[in-house]
User: Fold this.
Amino acid sequence: MQAFLSQRVVTAGAIRPAAILVEGEQIRSVVPPSQVPAGVEAQDFGEAAILPGLVDSHVHINDPGRADWEGFETATRAAAAGGYTMLVDMPLNCVPATTSVAGLEQKRAAAHGRCRVDWAAWGGVVHDNQHEIVPLAAAGVRGFKCFLVPSGVDSFTMVTEQQLKAALPYVVQTGLPLLVHAELPAPLDQANEALQQADWRDYKTYLQSRPDEAELSAIRLLLSLCRQYKFRLHLVHLSTSRALSDLSAARSQALPVTVETCPHYLHLASEAIEHGATINKCAPPIRNRQNREQLWQAMKDGTIDLIATDHSPCPPEMKRPDEGSFKTAWGGIASLSLALPLIWTEASLRGFSLLDIARWMAEGPARLAGCHDRKGRVAAGYDADFVILDPESEFLVNRKRLHYRHPVSPYLGEKLRGVVKATYVRGKLVFADDDFPGIPRGREVPGRLVNPS
Ligand SMILES: [Zn+2]
Assistant:
């Protein structure tokens, strides 16, 4: 048995002095510090907080097939350094895409023995794979992802409203959530038409090319389908605050809808993005400060459930740093190693506590991925996954702190609050002092529908 002590353990809806007793890979109990049994190996973290290991429900690991973009080794290393103990991998950008059981098996082979933290897979819903949905669920994916606009890679097709309707009965049959990239093509096409001659080095052009209207109309369509089909709808990377009133109305009608946003939408603002700074390109786009503050308000009132990174790296040249064109640069921001301090920096300024962080970044994503019975909380019977955070210390972001494959980031040079001192996965130290001790022990946490054969 081991004991992890701190004056600030985030557990059972409170932050209090406690000792976490760990037996093997699981938490046996959480007790007052004075009740650590004699002879138990104890580590006292003093004033540093112990939070549940974070769960990131939106990561593009890109492996197999595009491990030169990221990969299981580097993504899970960055995760460990960022306080994450479980990642749920998006079904696209890898080759093959996770749109069939065969694709899932190739992913498992690629992950084997290479992960520093635990992981699970989302399956893909594309234009023609309706008959793979139930088998993918049976094989252990934790839910599905689809796009209502082109995804950026040809191998992962978008779905039209008709194709989505063809897929939904199968999704409903699995009982798993459907995660949707909510933008519609028509408002995007219309906006782009008017911008043919525009200056694409100017971030304003990019912002105009992905108007709020594209997100808002997609979300309204999805809410009406959710009402009709009663599937578990999850909106990934909400950017526009203009959808918040529709979303909060949907919740008050008890529709099964959940919402995520990302560190870049909660930290960056369009006004500050310089000409040609394509490192900030993502879709939907980073909008203005006022929009950002409204997203923070939605974190407070609960309209947004959780924060996921949408960690989506690419080789640096694909960001077209020389050309600086927001039209041709790859969209995606990598933040696995920084998301916790990014969010804590912003959240602590606005009066939130580490309890909110645990809810948004551990419990909420674990619930979405259906593993909230063993991940996302510091409680008896849960996996002994922890992040040790010094919430008061600050640091400067430099390349050495990124730990993912390509050390590029819009956050370089920023001063952030909250230092990850150590990360434990199922009782074992996986990150401390800029080092990754031990062999990669991370493993898949497959869904419960797994076919025992
Ligand atoms: Zn994504």
